[in-house]
């Protein structure tokens, strides 16, 4: 029978950027153990069923399926979240949005809206850090809302809730101290859509028109109707879209508009403050 060490040594994942890590995560999952167990017991001989399960996971990974979908979970912030193919996989760069939101509104009660919540990652990270905040996450996909609620219940975060809504459509006249979101922002013809993990992620959560800005335009236009005076809008966007997004914010009447850089040095999020007045008295419908 093969050992843990020999299974890891023979695992072939030539197209993965992190083949050893992927193999360890998948084998630990097949065994129902932690990665530290693999290092502690390298001579352990997994059962025939466990070896078969590992082989199946490797085959799916070689076909390009994301490790997070294979495991059914992904770490984000300080949380472990359930993930599924109808939601985006939370990524480390999005933690910048959480960090910035916490810095802009450092204390006191606040109502915060997370648009396109998916797994609930952003809303739940903020809820875990600010118990006095009330988080509302919305998503137009019913399965995503149910998934986010499962994550909330497992994490026991009573100050968050999730509802089905296409952006602001189901919110009526509700207003918030802060609105955050990681909307679709990839152009429809972007070649990256045919590469890597994104091939398996839902296109509706990735693609937003010819230039990738369709959803961001809608959100920027409608957000002031749901912001308290002095409230903030924070959005993640593509690495090369910051300048265009800043123009959208400023044209809508947001002030203190800035962009922040992600771990790779790219301008990844843009935020601005709403002071209650549209340029030239313009009215914007949702």
Describe the structure in your own words.
With 286 residues, the chain is α/β, with parallel strands linked by helices. It has 2 domains: 4-63, Ubiquitin-associated (UBA) domain (Helicase, Ruva Protein, domain 3); 82-281, Vaccinia Virus protein VP39 (Rossmann fold). The protein is built from 10 helices and 9 strands. The protein has helices at 4-10, 19-31, 35-40, 48-62, 67-71, 95-104, 121-129, 142-155, 214-222, 242-252; strands at residues 73-76, 79-82, 110-115, 133-139, 160-164, 176-181, 227-236, 255-261, 267-274. The strands form 2 sheets. Strands 5-4-3-6-7-9-8 form a 7-stranded mixed beta sheet, with helices on both faces. A two-stranded antiparallel ribbon has the order 1-2. The radius of gyration is 21 Å and the shape is elongated. The mean pLDDT is 90.
Structural class by secondary-structure content: alpha/beta
Radius of gyration, whole Å: 21 Å
How do the helices and strands follow one another from N- to C-terminus? HHHHHEEHEHEHEEHEHEE
CATH class group of the largest domain = Alpha Beta
Number of helical regions: 10
Largest sheet: 7 strands, mixed
CATH homologous superfamily descriptor of the largest domain: Vaccinia Virus protein VP39
How many distinct folded domains? 2
Beginning-to-end CA distance, first to last residue: 62 Å
- The backbone outline, from C-alpha atoms, is elongated
Helix content: 25-40%
Main sheet: strand order: 5-4-3-6-7-9-8
């Amino acid at each position: 029978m093969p050992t843990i060490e020999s299974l890891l040594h023979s695992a072939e994942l030539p197209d993965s950027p992190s083949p050893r890590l992927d193999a360890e995560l998948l084998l630990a999952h097949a065994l129902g153990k932690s990665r530290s167990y693999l290092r502690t017991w390298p001579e352990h001989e997994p059962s025939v069923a466990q070896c078969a399960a590992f082989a199946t996971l490797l085959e799916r990974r070689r076909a390009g399926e994301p490790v997070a979908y294979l495991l059914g979970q992904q770490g984000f912030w300080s949380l472990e979240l359930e993930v599924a193919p109808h939601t985006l996989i939370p990524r480390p760069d999005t933690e910048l949005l959480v960090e910035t939101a916490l810095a802009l509104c450092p204390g006191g009660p606040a109502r915060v809206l997370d648009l396109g919540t998916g797994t609930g990652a952003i809303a739940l990270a903020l809820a875990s850090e600010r118990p006095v905040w009330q988080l509302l996450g919305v998503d137009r996909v019913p399965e995503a809302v149910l998934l986010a609620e499962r994550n909330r219940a497992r994490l026991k975060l009573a100050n968050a809730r999730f509802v089905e809504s296409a952006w602001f459509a189901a919110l009526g006249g509700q207003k918030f101290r802060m609105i955050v979101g990681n909307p679709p922002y990839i152009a429809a013809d972007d070649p990256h859509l045919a590469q890597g993990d994104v091939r398996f992620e839902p296109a509706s959560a990735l693609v937003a028109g010819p230039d990738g800005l369709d959803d961001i335009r809608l959100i920027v236009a409608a957000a002031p109707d749901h912001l308290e005076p002095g409230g903030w809008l924070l959005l993640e966007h593509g690495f090369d879209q910051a300048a265009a997004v800043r123009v959208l914010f400023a044209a809508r009447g947001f002030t203190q508009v800035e962009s922040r850089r992600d771990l790779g040095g790219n301008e990844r999020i843009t935020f601005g403050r709403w002071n209650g007045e549209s340029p030239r008295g313009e009215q914007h419908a949702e």
